[in-house]
Structures are given as structure tokens and as C-alpha cells.
Amino acid sequence: MGTNSAAMKKDYSEKSRSQWIRSFVNNRLPNFLSEYVDDICQEIMIKLIRADARQGEKVMNFGYIKQTSMSVIIDFMRKHKNSQHNVSYDNQLHDEQNELDNPEQHTHQQKLLQIVHEIIMTFPKRCQDSLLLYLRGMKINEIVELTGNKKSTVRNDIYRSKEKLLNALNNQGIQYEI
Length: 178
Hints:
Layout: H1 2-28, H2 37-55, H3 62-79, H4 83-100, H5 103-120, H6 125-135, H7 140-147, H8 151-171
Helix pairs in contact: 1-2, 1-3, 2-3, 5-8, 6-8
């Protein structure tokens, strides 16, 4: 009976630990990653089982379990940080397809893009590069890494280039804000 009691206790503690982890993950995970709760819980449990094996007994330290859970959640969010952007990008593609159905709208956008491109090509090369990368959605730190310029230089180039672009568009009668 003692062996059966120990097995029941182990099963109960494993069940309560996994329930706590699931609840913890559900409360901390952003909505756009909610479909991955099972994967994250499984990864946490694998790490805890490995820790159990290293320690020789079940890890019941709440702080360790919480820290391990947060670590796995953060790692998963880093890996899937573009998931939310992919959904909006898919919607954007759908919207663009609807706009392509309207030839006048498509022609107007093409002309506007051509004007913007021509204006940007009049800027110094360093400013062109920084602004084009910025307009494509890159963050300043990413542009710094890519171009090798200082962060303050990239930030200033983008700011000044945006101002010059807006002024040039306004001079052509096109009201636009970035």
C-alpha cells in the first residue's frame, strides 16, 4: 500500500505542477501565440524533467519552476515575434489584391511610389539607404547593424530625410505624413 500511495502522490504532484504551468502560460502568453500553449507547456515540462533527473528528485521549488516557465515563454516569443506581423501582412496582401481590382487606384499608387522614389534618389547615399530601410519596416537598431553607422547618425539621417521627403511632396501638391 505504501508503494501505491507514493505513486498516487507523485501522480498528483505531477498533475498539479502541469496544471499550474498551463495556467501560468495562459496568463502570460500574448493572444497571437495562444495556439502554442501546449507546445510551450511541453517544453517547460521537458526542462523540468531534465532538472528532476539532475537533482535526483522532483523539483518543487516554485521560484525555479516560475523562472523556467518565463524563460521558455520569452524564448518562444522571440522565435515567433513576427507571427503577429505575418497575420497583418496577409491581411495587407488581401487588401492590396482588392485595390488591384481597381486599376485607377493601382495606377495612382504606382505614380505616387515613383514620385517618392525619385525624390529619395536625390538624397545623399547614406540617407537614401537609411530611409529606404526604415520605410521598409526595419527598426533603427537593425539599420545600425546593417549599415555600420552610429545609432545617432542613422536616427538623424532618417529624421532629416523624412522631413525633406515630406517637404518635396508638399511642394508637388501631395499632402502626406510619415
